[in-house]
Amino acid sequence: xxxxxxxxxxxxxxxxxxxxxxxxxxxxxxxxxxxxxxxxxxxxxxxxxxxxxxxxxxxxxxxxxxxxxxxxxxxxxxxxxxxxxxxxxxxxxxxxxxxxxxxxxxxxxxxxxxxxxxxxxxxxxxxxxxxxxxxxxxxxxxxxxxxxxxxxxxxxxxxxxxxxxxxxxxxxxxxxxxxxxxxxxxxxxxxxxxxxxxxxxxxxxxxxxxxxxxxxxxxxxxxxxxxxxxxxxxxxxxxxxxxxxxxxxxxxxxxxxxxxxxxxxxxxxxxxxxxxxxxxxxxxxxxxxxxxxxxxxxxxxxxxxxxxx
Length: 309
Hints:
HhH-GPD_domain; TATA-Binding Protein; five-stranded antiparallel beta sheet; globular; DNA damage; DNA_glycosylase; DNA-3-methyladenine glycosylase activity
């Protein structure tokens, strides 16, 4: 076993405490909290790492102490890959100052952003994990979705043992593809959901679908491509774009949570419809994803649970 640590400097403002509190609110099954650090495993290519992230700065001068453990030798190139993955996951290089400046003329949204200053998306660890978990989360509540996610992890992958503690590792496409529908049915997956998850994994494992090449495409092109896959609709792809790719200008205008947040913050008598949201959201571009995210957060300060995750 080997261990290394390094310092990571995100762009300011970056409120790591606010971001991690949100994770606690949604009960993310891959993260743990140990001695003040946010901990989870990362799969990069064929290697698995345990990464601990601890804030050593503040929102205006952010700094993270990163601890990396692995069963294999950790090379300098491995650390570079881990940092690159973490910067993507933590949206560490997004220019929030430009986002806030864009909304200065809107007194309502300026207040919302001030209330959640420094909050950023924490993305899923990779695109396969994001889409798989989004398919699992279709038409079920957050608690049961988390239960199904844990059962998939336990059924398909081997945990990583570090210093006598076992940490869950999200399975690779190949590991999920090797499962049978019956195995997931035994874990309380519906027949269709078992088929959707395993068939999606097989398309990735066999090379029919190359997720990484999607990063080069525009949002609508990605939506048009992925909705052709059985079990994947527009809502699913929008989640994928938001929480897998971190696309900054996505407007899920049909989302009930977003419409409720607009009604609440703007003091509307009725919930706005999708056309109203699209008309209002035109002025949010190129930051529609972040306006949506902050409006979701404004709905429930206590648990910070959005409706789409």
